[in-house]
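Q: A small favour: would you put together sequence and structure tokens for a protein?
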Amino acid sequence: VRPSRGSCVGAALAPALYGSRGDDQHATRKLLPRVKQPPVDANTEATTTLGNWYANKMPWRPEVAILVNETTLLPVYIALAPAATLIERIPAQVTAVLTELGLPADAIEREAAAMSEPSWAKTANRSVVGVMNEFVFLADHHRWGRGGVAPDLIELSVQMSETPCSPLYSTYISPCDAVRAAFDRPE
């Protein structure tokens, strides 16, 4: 049985995740009750190179969460359990994906350090939530194309980062190119 395209539509209504109280991690209404942390008011000042992240729970067993960066649309998949510690585990997973994308180690370390004081907030950008839902749909089909076997989440993140995204067409086309360009900018 293949997942239906509508299986992730309800997930679009959401809250936010990370930052040193400068960058938020936005989480969906579906994810917020699982993390058992109250959302804070969203902060618009970004303190990391990549900025805010959006998160949602995917309909998989074992449970998986998807993160999508607001600026670059980079998808990062991470094990949801235990949900109470999800926000503390995000920097390590983002670091692993950025490493696989071949970014400089010093830039990755700075980004991870800037994500050291995480907080959850409600979603504020419907476009990013829509892109996140598309990545859920694509990951579902990737998984079912492998016979329902759960893929390596870092490998899946890197593979999905090569997906063309229409909000990026005027600039970098794919999230992996947008991330590389973000880290190439002088600070």
Q: What stands out?
A: The chain has six helices and six strands.
